[in-house]
Amino acid sequence: MAEFGLEVTSLYAGILKNINLSLKKGEIGVVFGPNGAGKTTLLNAISGILTPKNGRVRINGKDVTDIPPEHRNVAYIFQNLALFPHLTVFENIAFPLKVKKEKNIKEKVEFILKKLEISELENRFPGKLSGGEKQRVAIARALVSNPDILLMDEPFSSLDFEMRKFIRQEFVGIIKNYRITTLFVTHDPYEAEETADIVFTIKNGKIGNNQNFEINRLKISRIKPLNNGMAIADFETFSLIVPVCNPNPNKNYIAEFSADSIYVSSFKPPVPTLNTIKGKIVSHRKNGERIILKLLTGNRIITGNIPLYMWNEIKGKDVFIIVKYRGIKVKEETK
Fold first, then answer.
1. Quick one: which of 2, 177, 248, 320 has the most CB atoms within 10 Å?
2. Residue 146's CB: how many other CB atoms inside 10 A?
């Protein structure tokens, strides 16, 4: 049975109507939708800032619906980061520990400063920090008290495109290292695609699971184990690196990945990238702000579901397809 870090069931609060979602412990979930859809309201209900009219919120299996925010062990990074301008970086990070009256505050703050490689900033005030540095400080303050859940509201909106991409990658690495269940909201499809293990779409207070997109199921012709729980899966005319431990050579396997687990580009990535294969666009159709693609690679058809901005950058039918490694699941083939 899956160990859930966060469960929201039948939640009604403000604009929200019958919200149901769950994240396994350590997963990163993204709530994606337009302004006014109810994204921030959802975070506020999970954190306890907003009391729901109906429904339950469970964290690590414990019902916290009626527990005050300060006793939920939830960290919340707001859109404006909410750093105290009159406190140094060290004092900002130490603040939640002081509120909880924890011991060994100095050691804990110094540890997280070192972990996030910002020790040299400890005596600076927020007004003297760059946008990226402020992001790291906000993340450090959120992680220092070892929360059960991390909530983030449009966390990278104040950064330019290149810095956002860099900070996102850094953020995912940190969160995965700490194995903290995380839910953050965005209206940026690129951010949702780049960061999430699971994407929830929200519109007019109602939520859906983006992973209900069509699933690609490809039979593996041969699988060869590598180190660190990875293997090379051959599909006759192309290969993919897949997450699987100790595959049985006498078993047949199927690789599965959802249609939204791929990137499509007219240009080959400038640096070596896992799971880049050549393909050709067979057909496409628009579905709201996304494009549904049929892609031929080798002798197989793969379905893609990409954001509109990605489609607008494609020139011609010949493309490169990148299958997200962490979006692949390998299962034994059943008769």
1. 320
2. 12
**String of b and e for 169-189 (b: at least 16 CB within 10 Å)?**
ebbbebbeeeebbbbbbbbbb
Q: What is the pLDDT of residue 162?
A: 62
Nearest to 130 by CA among 95, 175, 94, 167: 167
Q: What is the pLDDT of residue 1?
A: 44
Residue 308 predicted with pLDDT over 60: yes
Tell me the residue length of the chain: 335
Measure the CA–CA gap between 180 and 6, rounded to whole angstroms. 11
Q: Express each pLDDT in 257-281 by its tens digit.
A: 888 888 999 988 876 677 999 999 9
Task: For residue 207, name the pLDDT band (cuts at 50, 70, 90).
Answer: confident
CA 276 to chain centre: 21
The reported pTM is 0.63
**Alpha-carbon distances of 222 from 158, 225, 227, rounded to whole Å:** 46, 10, 17
CB of 241 closer than 8 Å to CB of 283: no
Please, what is the average pLDDT of the chain? 86
- Compute φ and ψ for 325, nearest 5 degrees: -55, -45
Residue corresponding to tokens 């909410």: 82
C-beta separation of 302 from 324 below 8 A: no
Average pLDDT on 156-178 reads 75
- Strand ranges of the sheet holding 253-258, from the earlier edge strand across to the other edge: 215-219, 253-258, 329-332
- Using the CB atoms, write b or e for 283-314: b if 16+ within 10 Å: ebeeeeebbbbebebeebebbbbbbeebbeeb
265 CB burial (10 A radius; 0-12, 13-18, 19+): middle
